[in-house]
Each structure stands twice: as C-alpha cells, then as structure tokens.
Records
---
Amino acid sequence: MSDEGGDPACWLHRVCPECGLFAVEDPPTVCERCGVEVPAGGEAPADTHGRG
C-alpha cells in the first residue's frame, strides 16, 4: 500500500480552458471569472476569440 495522496487527475474538467479558474460546482457550465463556456466532460472548447 502506498502513502501517496492527493487529488485525482480527473479534476481537469473543472478548469476553465480560457483563464484556468477551478470551478467550485460540478459540472461547471460557464466560468465565473471570464464567462467562457466550460465544456462538459473535458471536451475541447469552442473558439470564442477568433483564434484557431
């Protein structure tokens, strides 16, 4: 048995793809800080700023 601990890597779906804010609610839908839609299930975000 290992003494290693910490949070699982599956928290990634709660991170805003635009500004990096960690969402408190699960699942997040819109970032509280920048207003960007946070895709469900860690999908790639839509291009909201004309970058592509």
Note: The CA atoms of residues 26 and 48 lie 22 Å apart.
---
Amino acid sequence: MRKGIAIRPVTFRYTKPCEDGEQPLQYGLVAEEVAAVFPNLVVLNPEGQAETVKYRLHPTLLLNEMQKQKAEIEQSKKIRKNGLK
C-alpha cells in the first residue's frame, strides 16, 4: 500500500471561532497521522508534537502519485494486451 493511502481526509471546526464568531466546516488531514507517514509535511510545536499540516506541499506530492499510478495503469494495459495475443 502506498504511504499516502494511510492518511484519511477529515472534516472539523476550529475550537477558536473566526473574528465574526463563525466556526465554518473545514476539510483537512490529521497532523499526527500525516507526521507518522510524512514527517516533513507537518509543523511541530515547541514540545515536538505535530501541530499543523503543510498543505502547500500537497499538490506536488499528489501529482507525483498520479504519475506513478498512470505508469502502473499503462504497464498493466501492456501486459494484458500482450497476454491476449
């Protein structure tokens, strides 16, 4: 299983409300879970605990995983095509 598959998306609300008092629904990842798989993608607090995820780095990693998956699909197609001859 690829490492990224072990990370689950979640919804949450920050405990501290925004300036307008709202607590809108947020979408993200659990920093502790990300730290267990990709420690370089989290920011640690002074105590060394995972505090937040570096979301700005995710698009690059997702693109990389998509490219790997595409290559695997293409390889599977070649194997299937050659096997059917």
Note: Residues 3-83 form one domain.
---
Amino acid sequence: MWELFFTFKSNIAMKEQYDFSKGVRGKFYHPDAEFNTPIYLEPEIADFIRNLALSKNMDMTKIVNLLLKKDKELIDCAN
C-alpha cells in the first residue's frame, strides 16, 4: 500500500516557492469542531455488518455502534 502512496506522491511537482502573503491564519480553524474517527473493517467483518444492516433496514454505522455498546457492557460487567 505504501508503494502506491509514494509512487503517487513522487509524480506531483512542487514549486520552488509558494506565496502565502495573502493567506489568512486560522481561516478554517474551529475550536469546537468534532471529528469522526475512521474505522477500517476487515472485508469479512464489513460484509457481515453490511448484510446485517440490509436485513434490519438500518445504517451500518448504527449497527456497528450497537455492537460496540454491547461489547462495552460486557466488558464493564466483567470488571
């Protein structure tokens, strides 16, 4: 995978200099911004979640959150 990344990056020509004199510092900064953590599932698990979501007519995110909440409950009970 990294080979593809480095191959792609090496084909992009960089300028010798960039002019940031008209740039605005913090233009896109939002102190209260919240970011979603990307989660990458193995293909077998992704297929399982997708099929389960389709059969229940639910969003995959909702299914994953429900499963993780159940796992958390089990872990909390075991401690």
Note: DSSP finds three helices and no strands in the chain.
---
Amino acid sequence: MKQSFLQKLINVGTVLLHASDQTTAMLELINIKKPTDIKRYLSRLIETVRDEKKHHR
C-alpha cells in the first residue's frame, strides 16, 4: 500500500496486488477509499481461498 501525505489526510491510497500470473504480475488500485481496510479485507480473502484449496485436495 502506498499513501502520500495528502492521501493520508483524505484517507485514500494505492493498494498494490502482487500476483503469480506473469501477464499481470502487479496490479495497482489507485485512489481507493480506506486503503488499509481494503488491504486487510483482501488479505483475509486470499487466506480463506488458500485454506479452502488445501482442504479440497
């Protein structure tokens, strides 16, 4: 996640997503409201999907 000083003041930022897909290895979600909350949400979602994949094998 990246936030400039101004972005911190208005609670927006850029959330960076790093993927294993080589065609889109990094995706930037720019000027997202509440970026810390979004980052936490995405992290939990990714962990949930990983756990589900482990249990379905």
Note: The radius of gyration is 14 Å.
